[in-house]
Amino acid sequence: MPELPEVEALAEFLREHAVGRAVIGVDVTAFQALKTVDPPVTALAGLLVTGVARHGKFLDVDCDGLHFVTHLARGGWLRWRDDLTGAKPVRPGKGPLAVRVRLSPGEDGRAPGFELTEAGTQKRLAVYVVRDPEDVPGIAGLGPDPLAEDFTPDLLKTIVGGSRAQIKGLLRDQKVIAGIGNAYSDEVLHVAKMSPFKIAGTLTDGQVADLHDAIVSTLRDAVGRARGLAAKDLKSEKKSGLRVHGRTGEACEVCGDTIREVSFADSSLQYCPTCQTGGKPLADRRMSRLLK
Fold first, then answer.
1. 147 in a structural domain
2. Which residues contact 5 (CB under 8 A, 6 or more apart)?
């Protein structure tokens, strides 16, 4: 799932490659992905791309005041095409292509654009055409952006104070903090040397400060690694930069202990026992059931 660093990198990529070009047309093949009808998606044709922004994990392409907003969800991705002149017409079907945005040609005569694709059977990719990004429910309810200047240790202290939620779940809650998902919450907690099951409201002032530093440094480092990369290279960059997430059974590069996993119905978390839980493995309820 693309999270804040990847979406920020996609936004930067589109600022460089799409801003200043006119939208020739938007072709939708996965009609369930289009969540709005007014304005119609056809209203984007002829408008100039004037800016690209990120709101949490939402990507916002500003077209002369109309906003083409997408949330890539778990299996979605953005694929840039240098020339769509000879591309096959979009047809509804079972393939991964959901939406194609065609842009005006440059001096070289090539007409570029980008495509939104979605792998897997759970189709959750979402596209909105709105006059104001705040008209998108998911954006209107976002918590503070962790890379914003006003995201301070004091603000984080207010967020966690009194919360009975486990810190892993709180970090993933977009209404609490915008942009952090399953992967980077694992990475943040590893850097902060904190158990994913720790109750947020029990954090000391020192632990809040450590967590704040871990959030900001982890995300900024990831954004820095992704900056300047082509859209097609961002997935592999994300995977190569992760230290615990998705690395079950491997050695922790900090202490050498074996990275462990806790599985849930539709996701899992990874952590290092030595770095994060005092050497004690966390209970994995799914594995416990399998062993009975």
1. no
2. 184, 219, 222, 223, 225, 226, 238
- Between CA 225 and CA 228 the distance in angstroms is 8
pTM above 0.90, yes or no: yes
Does residue 175 share a domain with residue 45? Answer: no
Query: What token pair was written down for 228?
Result: 């300047």
pLDDT in tens, 12-54: 999 999 999 999 999 999 999 999 999 999 999 999 999 999 9
Residue with tokens 């709105």: 130
- Residue 132 predicted with pLDDT over 60: yes
> Is 148 part of any domain?
no
CATH number where 212 lies: 1.10.8.50
Question: Domain tally for the chain?
Answer: 2
Bridge partner list, 55: 58
**CA-CA distance, 115 to 98, in Å (whole number)?**
7
